[in-house]
Specification:
The protein has about 500 residues and is an alpha+beta fold. It contains 17 helices and 17 strands. It has one domain. α3 packs across α6. The N terminus is likely disordered.
């Protein structure tokens, strides 16, 4: 039986928090202000001051390509991909503050996730690198429903599968604040600094995702709404002692709306040049959260009472992990997942996992064909290394509920060393939480069809990480121990 470690953190009980919030007039939530009424409300009433939100915002839409009134499916699909490359190129090769002004970009330059250190530092990014950085998430739908091959037997091949395009937006300043690397207010020198609690534990929720996809009517540009995502994935911060400091709460409240405004400005600038007829929007998409009770319910009902599962590892010789080893472990997980690199077959896992000679593929779920979306991990402030895992099988299942859910993909795993290097922590974004929070708007029938799928996905990911650590990392480690962070009071 695995041991569990419960880490103490700065947080009040619900009763204490409500009392202090009511007395201090504290603002809670990001982009929404929560009064004591909404927190204490029984049931799911909106409560005073609560602003309903959805996890996804539709930022813009473009027309599909039509010929004599009829949609040209191939040309429309190509336009959606071209739009995603145009947006990626803008982020990768330009300094947004120079283009849009410091009054719009209050932080620092945004970066395109999945690109090399050279691309990030010099902005000299190749076309191939930019193209590879834009993920193509498969759906079960054909590009052209009139395609002869599709009509012949109803199957969708790799060649005619409709895919949605996903971009990762990274910003060192905002990531440093969210990860607890830099203080929200004050400074460390005089002891006044106040940080996001347990910052690194939220790393699987980053980076910011933008998607471009199409149906038979429009091409859509969606993004995960920073205010909503912070509320869903950083609920422990909302209930922390720090939020009773009005300056801290105000500064924290201001960050996600600023992040959203900057990303929107970048999207508008890049795609208005790509398609002058683009329609600019800011529309709520996905499940609606009407009260703080909704947040508490979705966190509390998930498998781990959290959006995350954190597993801690120590060295068998009692030594410390170096940062180089931390990043090497992240790379070992990617290599074990398999990736689309020269000489490799994505979705094939030849790693031998026992003395009997069984390979990793023998214990993964059938036809899951897991692979890494990136050749290398995405590193974010706090020395957190992000791995994005994809399974065409499960991606198609998720996308079968509607391509608007694409921003919930791919699966995120992070690697980080803590305790001065004494522990290496592997964190997973829990598929069960993702289903209950970002797919809450799907039908009951669709929910029933998913059934045990989130648990199967998590088992696959843990099996891949286990093989990476025990076989491919080159570091002798003790079995993992779960670390728990209370996400609710």
């Amino acid at each position: 039986m695995k041991q569990e470690i419960k880490l103490e953190k700065s947080t009040a009980t619900l009763a204490q928090w409500v009392k202090k919030a009511a007395c201090g007039g504290v603002l809670l939530g990001l982009g929404l202000s929560l009064g004591a009424t909404s927190v204490m409300a029984s049931g799911h009433g909106k409560g005073e001051g609560f602003k309903p939100f959805t996890p996804v915002s539709r930022i813009a839409q473009m027309n599909v390509v039509r010929v004599k009134g009829d949609i040209d499916y191939a040309a429309s699909y190509a336009k959606a991909r071209a739009a995603s490359i145009a947006l990626a190129t803008y982020v990768a090769r330009l300094k947004e503050a120079d283009m849009l002004g410091s009054d719009v970009i209050a932080g620092i330059d945004w970066k395109l996730g999945g690109t090399s250190e050279s691309c990030i530092s010099t902005l000299n990014c190749t076309d191939d690198e930019i193209n590879h950085a834009v993920l193509a998430i498969p759906s079960p739908d054909p590009i052209d429903p009139n395609d002869a091959a599709y009509l012949a037997d109803g199957t969708v091949t790799k060649a005619n599968t409709k895919k949605a395009n996903v971009l990762d937006f990274c910003n060192k300043k905002y990531a440093s604040l969210a990860m607890g690397v830099d203080p929200i207010i004050g400074n460390a020198a005089d002891g006044t600094a106040k940080y996001v609690v347990n910052g690194y534990s939220h790393a699987p929720a980053l980076p910011c995702e933008v998607s471009i996809w199409l149906d038979d009517d429009k091409i859509y540009v969606d993004m995960l709404d920073p205010s909503a995502i912070f509320t869903l994935f950083f609920s422990d911060v909302l209930f922390s002692e720090e939020m009773q400091d009005q300056d801290f709460a105000a500064a924290l409240n201001a960050m996600p709306p600023q992040v959203k405004d900057e990303i929107k400005a970048i999207i508008y600038a890049a795609l208005s040049e790509f398609d002058p007829e683009i329609k600019l929007l800011d529309k709520k998409i996905g499940p609606v959260y009407d009260s703080m009770d909704d947040i508490i319910e979705v966190v509390d009902s998930s498998t781990y009472d959290s959006p995350y599962l954190h597993m801690s590892y120590t060295k068998q010789d009692g030594g410390v992990f170096t940062e180089a080893e931390s990043k090497a472990v992240a790379q070992a997980i990617i290599n074990t997942l398999s990736k689309e690199a020269e000489g490799e077959v994505p979705g094939v896992h030849p790693t031998v996992i026992n003395e009997a000679g069984d390979t990793l593929d023998s214990i993964l779920s059938p036809k899951s064909s897991w692979r890494s979306a990136r050749l290398e991990p995405i590193s974010i402030p706090g020395k957190n290394h992000i791995i994005e895992a994809c399974s065409p099988k499960y991606a198609k299942m998720a996308m079968g509920t509607g391509l608007s859910h694409v921003n919930a993909l791919p699966c995120e795993i992070t690697v980080k060393i803590i305790g001065g290097g004494s522990k290496l922590v592997v964190s997973y974004l829990d598929p069960d939480f993702m289903l209950k929070s970002l797919f809450a708007d799907i039908s009951d029938e669709e929910k029933a069809q998913f059934g045990a799928i989130p648990a199967i996905i998590m088992a696959d990911l843990q099996a891949i990480v286990k093989a990476a650590l025990e076989v491919n990392s080159g570091i002798a480690m003790n079995p993992g121990v779960r670390i728990r962070y209370d996400m609710l009071p």
